[in-house]
Amino acid sequence: MVTGAIPDWWGWGYWVSPLSYGFNAIAGNEMSAPRWMNKPGTNTTISLGTAVLKNFDVYTDKNWYWIGTAAILGFAVLFNILFTFALAYLSPAGKSQAMITEETTKEETRSTQSLSHSDGNNTGEMAILRMNSRSNPDALGGNADSLGMDFAEHHKASSLHQYVQ
């Protein structure tokens, strides 16, 4: 879109967009090449390259190549800093995944052992296997290393597998 066609109240969007700086830099670099500057434009006082740049409201100064390059690098650094702060200080939007510590593992092992010893038919292990089989049909077959389980289910299944052995 030509800069002159942008409404005045959208002018800020042109200046905060990295694409506008990139377009100005690439167009200015291309149209200032000798193959465009040595050919006369429609008006014989300016070259074809300058006429094309003016037609698209692109700055004709050759320094805009470096301004655009510096602006794009500046945007990259700014976005990386903002992304780093967002990852460090914002909570995830979706379901957070549990991190299992050694204490939690020991407590789960004790609770699994107490379930299996409290009833003789091992209903605790069967409940865990049934839970795993919903997300992974191979879980009843003893495939605890399947990628279909999330971390908590995989941990329960592998600790159960170790306990049964």
UniProtKB/TrEMBL annotation:
PANTHER family listed in its UniProt record: ABC TRANSPORTER G FAMILY MEMBER 39-LIKE, PLEIOTROPIC DRUG RESISTANCE PROTEIN 1-LIKE ISOFORM X1
InterPro entries (UniProt xref): PDR_assoc
Residue ranges the record marks as coiled coil: none
Pfam families associated with the record: PDR_assoc
Top-level taxon in the UniProt lineage: Eukaryota
Ranges of biased composition (kind: Polar residues): 111-123
Record-given protein name: ABC TRANSPORTER G FAMILY MEMBER 36
Disordered, as annotated region: 100-123
Domain Plant PDR ABC transporter associated: residue ranges: 36-100
Transmembrane segments: 64-90
Organism listed in the record: Salix koriyanagi
Keyword terms of this UniProt record: Membrane, Transmembrane, Transmembrane helix
